[in-house]
Amino acid sequence: MASWIIHVTMMVLSVFISSSQGKRDRQLYCSACKAIADELNYSISEVDPKKTIHVGGFRLNPDGTMKDNKVPFARSETHLSELLEGVCNSMNDYALHVDPDTQHKQYKRFAPRSSGAPGDFPDFNHFQFDGPEASNALKFACETLVEDLEDDIISLFRQDTENVREELCSRVSGTRTLTQLHTTQTLL
User: Pick from 153, 188, 155: which is nearest to 40 by CA?
Assistant: First the structure.
């Protein structure tokens, strides 16, 4: 009888623990996703569009020639992988922003970029600076997303899709993108 009670108690505890760990803060992960997309887009835009990189194998063809395959460096898998390694470090430049009209909360960049205009500061009245814990939570969410979706992120950014931010963040939230909705409506 006692072993049965222990068994049932363990099952209830395991269900409770797994359900509490499975919940993600939607606001936090959505903001992290948007920040990843914005930071990557900015980093890509800073690269000289004429810069290229050799990709593929460096094997000789049977006729003794070598196929020279160059792609733009900014959207190469190599460059995107390097960017993903450091993208979460920029989460310290984000804080919780409360829209004054809708009271909608999301994390936004408050720190100006190094190449930004001198007056490129947001209105700090609408930001909530909750100390390093808030940016650590955003950084953890960023690292989790990069780890879980690295291949998808690289694939989307290599394609130079116009709405990469919406496409990526829809995968995080599990919702459909505007493109997917339009395609579904067209098919119907």
Answer: 153
**CA separation for the pair 91, 136 (Å, rounded):** 8
Residue 71: beta bridge partners? 53
Q: How far apart are alpha carbons 116 and 37 in whole angstroms?
A: 18
- With a CB cutoff of 8 Å and minimum separation 6, the contacts of 79 are 44, 47, 53, 73
Any bridge partners for residue 108, and if so which? 95
Q: Which of 13-27, 62-76, 100-114, 140-154 tops mean pLDDT?
A: 140-154
Q: Could you tell me the pTM of the whole model?
A: 0.73
Question: For 115, which DSSP code?
Answer: T
Chain-centre distance of CA 155, in angstroms? Answer: 12
Residue 161 carries which DSSP code?
Answer: -
Q: What does DSSP assign to residue 113?
A: P
Strand order in the sheet with 127-128: 105-109, 94-98, 127-128
- Render the burial of 12-21: b for 16+ CB within 10 Å, e for the rest: eeeeeeeeee
